[in-house]
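$ ./design --mode recover --in tokens.txt
reading tokens...
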């Protein structure tokens, strides 16, 4: 168990943490690469300006009520991940698998999605002001490029 761990500027590489419990972790500027955090509960954690990827698996992880301001997710799998009621302002999702991800009631203002699949993602009640949708598959399965590079109206 690493509940409440202080991980400022820590580096996690080539690690298998799929059975770990990481509630309330404080890890700004954390770097996670080539690691498996499938289904890991990370509720209420702080990962502001953290870097996730490449080859990091967060499928099914629970990041409810977490702070990920300015975090970067590149070549990461977040399918079915729960990010509800989280702070994701200025977060960057590039080449990310986000199918079925829950963003409900999160603040995604100024976030960027590039070359990512959001099929079935839930944005109910989320703040999506100034979000950039660059070549993504929208939650309804259509492409942002078909709607003037936006998914608004297709969430």
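writing sequence...
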């Amino acid at each position: 168990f690493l509940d409440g761990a202080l991980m400022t500027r820590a580096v996690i590489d080539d690690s298998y943490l799929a059975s770990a419990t990481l509630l309330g972790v404080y890890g700004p500027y954390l770097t996670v690469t080539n690691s498996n955090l499938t289904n890991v509960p990370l509720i209420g954690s702080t990962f502001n300006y953290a870097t996730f990827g490449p080859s990091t698996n967060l499928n099914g992880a629970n990041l409810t009520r977490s702070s990920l301001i300015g975090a970067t997710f590149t070549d990461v799998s977040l399918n079915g991940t729960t990010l509800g009621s989280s702070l994701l302002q200025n977060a960057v999702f590039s080449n990310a698998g986000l199918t079925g991800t829950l963003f409900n009631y999160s603040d995604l203002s100024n976030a960027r999605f590039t070359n990512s699949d959001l099929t079935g993602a839930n944005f109910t009640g989320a703040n999506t002001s100034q979000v950039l949708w660059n070549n993504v598959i929208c939650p309804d399965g259509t492409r942002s490029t078909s709607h003037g590079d936006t998914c608004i109206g297709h969430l």
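exit 0
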